[in-house]
Amino acid sequence: MKCKNFFLLSWRKLWVIVVIGFTSIILHNLISGLMGIEEVFFFAIVIFIIPAYILIAVLFTVINFVKKRNTI
Q: How far apart are CA 67 and CA 51, in angstroms?
């Protein structure tokens, strides 16, 4: 099940999310500062995509944990 591999959280995935978030923030500020234009791609990643992924992944992980616990 590919969905399980993508949405099931682990410590490694959480660290990857944190690194991607900080990298996106820095790239957004760097591009905006150096070029003087308002850059929206990295801003959208930090504001919309990462929180949505975390919310969905946490819900999926909790539901998966509860299902496993009830079947045992």
A: 24
Pick from 10, 8, 32, 12: nearest CA to 20 = 12
Q: Are 18 and 36 in contact (CB under 8 A)?
A: no
Q: Domain range for residue 12?
A: 2-71
Domains contained in the chain, number = 1
Q: Other C-beta atoms within 10 Å of 66: how many? A: 10
45 contacts 24 by C-beta, under 8 angstroms: yes
Span 15-48, pLDDT tens digits: 999 999 999 999 999 999 999 888 899 999 999 9
Structure tokens at 69: 């616990």
Distance CA 4, CA 60 (A): 8
